[in-house]
Amino acid sequence: MAAGVLRRGAGDADAFRAGRPGRHPGARVPAQGSRGLMLLEARDLTKNFGGVRALDGAGFAIAEAGIVGLIGPNGAGKTTLFDMIAGRQFPDAGRVTLDGRDVTGLPPERRAALGLARTFQECRVFPEWTLRENLLFAARPRSFASALLRAFTRQEALPGGAAARAEELLRLATLDAYADAPASILSFGQRRMLEIASALMTRPRWLLLDEPAAGINPGLLDALGRFLRRAHADQGGLFLIVEHNMEFIMGLAGRIIVMHQGAVLADGPPEAVQSDEAVIEAYLG
Ligand SMILES: Nc1ncnc2c1ncn2[C@@H]1O[C@H](COP(=O)(O)OP(=O)(O)OP(=O)(O)O)[C@@H](O)[C@H]1O
């Protein structure tokens, strides 16, 4: 197991506590934002798969733009919760709101139209296409009308500013030197950054990242963290990140939500969560 990566096991609590003494024990969910609406709220989500209760009243509210980590031991319900927010799965009970709007029953494409984007555990880029082509593809309008236009005119109707946005993201990801090279020449970690850059092309208000640090060479983790910080400073919104690499997420996120057995166990700044005895206990299993 790589240093700083948390899985169930006796060494986990040590890795979890490493280096960061608790300073704000008991920190809870921040108050509502100035507009009075939550950027994202998951309320009392429940999901059963046959006899398995994957989510058991899970909920949290995020009022402010920022980078938020979603962590928890294997099987805690993180992916299921993520899928509920993205619309890939629907809850048995509970609801999800984006900017106060109930989106619980909306399919993923309707949520995308509202400004939600996500990446997946398996990296999705087109290896034969150049980096720039990958990014421009991500900016393509997905509507039926634009598909028709494309079919009849063979013209790509890209939104204004897409080319400039692609250059900007290539710079933020420090991939600009490879703009015209096929994505196949990139390392796995660089491909992951390209995939994230693609998701950022439309300046999503909500970006869901599923284990961005997984499988990435430790030498590239700093670059990935810098890219995410710079991208967030550039565009704002919420970056919600499921992650098992504790060192990475604790250094990146301003707030950590911990899940355990389908519910939220703790929620607060990294220092508080790392020194929370219930959280340490959950990781020890
Ligand atoms: N499609 C499914 N069918 C049956 N059980 C499922 C399904 N999806 C998830 N589960 C179960 O629900 C529970 C929560 O799974 P989930 O994948 O959400 O956890 P996780 O926190 O993302 O875990 P990991 O960190 O290992 O990815 C687990 O017990 C899992 O086996």
From TrEMBL:
Keyword Nucleotide-binding listed: yes
Keyword list, A-Z: ATP-binding, Nucleotide-binding, Transport
Domain ABC transporter: 40-282
PROSITE patterns: ABC_TRANSPORTER_1, ABC_TRANSPORTER_2
Any one GO CC term of the record: plasma membrane
Gene3D superfamilies in alphabetical order: P-loop containing nucleotide triphosphate hydrolases
GO molecular function per UniProt: ATP binding; ATP hydrolysis activity
Protein origin, superkingdom: Bacteria
InterPro entries per record: AAA+_ATPase, ABC_AA/LPS_Transport, ABC_transporter-like_ATP-bd, ABC_transporter-like_CS, BCA_ABC_TP_C, P-loop_NTPase
Name under which the protein is recorded: ABC transporter ATP-binding protein
UniProt source species: Falsiroseomonas bella
